Amino acid sequence: MTVPDRHNPRLHELMARVNADPELYALWVASNVTAIERLGMTDHGPVHVKIVLNIAVRLLRLLAEAGVPTGVQTTYGLEREDAEVVVAMAALMHDVGMSIHRDDHESFSLFLAREKLKELLPGVYDGPTAALLTSEILHAIISHRSGGRPLTLEAGVVRIADALDMAKGRSRIPFEAGSLSIHSVSAAAIEAVRITTGEERPIRICIEMTNSAGVFQVDQLLRQKLKGSGLEPHIEIEVSLEGETERRLVREFKF
After folding, report:
1. What does 107-165 look like in DSSP terms, one character per residue?
2. What gap in Å lies between CA 123 and CA 160, rounded to an integer?
3. Which residues are within 8 A (CB) of 14 and not within 5 positions of it... i.e. 6 or more apart?
4. CA 76 to CA 20: how far, in whole Å?
5. Does the pLDDT at position 168 exceed 80?
6. I want to staple 166 with a disulfide (CB 3.0 to 4.6 A). Which of 153, 194, 205, 217 is the partner?
7. In the sheet where 190-197 sits, what is the strand order?
8. Which residue blocks in 33-104 are alpha helix, DSSP H?
9. If we measure between CA atoms, which residue out of 80, 70, 95 comes closest to residue 157?
């Protein structure tokens, strides 16, 4: 797992510990077995985790550059770098509960992540600070579920970052294997997702589609995750359908 962390020594140390942890990697692999091999869903493994990690940290930094305060800064007087740790650790472990089951996987992620954080945080943070950050990380994890209620900026960022891993690469394995679900087909229709500084708001998200099937990703996944995230005032979204004709994704669909 890699993320730009050279200006954040605590995040740098934690990422080194994450990359030296074969058990955590095994949980990501097992999560993908549940998602792809057993349920025919889109990627929920190491690639998805890495993408969400980098999107989440980028979103948080864009918000910070715009002067938007984070939860740990406002509540506990911690630093922006500590908010990055919350976002990064939550992004890394938000789906580990998929290794157990898809149903209620966000809750399963909580106890797996809590045990892993007991190993990762000591030595980087003192005991009380580690306890506070663990609570913030677990809050961000549970808040990414459907109907979740993020109460911090960090939790809202993780929720949106998860939804923004929607480009065609995420559906490659199930789609090429012949799994024709709305998740795999709609993800295959998303050509690219670009995140930049907004014109009127801190964040601008540009989504390029090659087929209108991608509307499902935008309307049913991203829009639902954005609603109630707390990030609504900070994000502008633009969706475009590329090309004069739509690229055919499915020749025939039967059920």
Report:
1. HHHHHHHHHHHHHHSBTTB-HHHHHHHHHHHHHHHHTTSTT----SHHHHHHHHHHHH-
2. 30
3. 85, 88, 89, 120, 121, 124
4. 30
5. no
6. 217
7. 190-197, 203-209, 235-241
8. 46-65, 71-76, 80-93
9. 70
pLDDT at residue 187 in the model: 72
- The pTM is what? 0.88
Using the 8-state DSSP alphabet, how is residue 251 labeled? Answer: S
pLDDT higher than 60, residue 248: no
User: CA dist 239 to 58, 107, 229, 233, Å?
Assistant: 20, 32, 20, 18
Burial 37-54 (b: 16+ CB within 10 A, else e): eebbbbbbbbbbbbbbbb
Cα–Cα separations (whole angstroms), residue 49 to 29, 63, 96, 122, 160: 11, 21, 10, 23, 13
Q: What are the pLDDT digits (tens) for 122-141?
A: 999 999 999 999 999 999 99
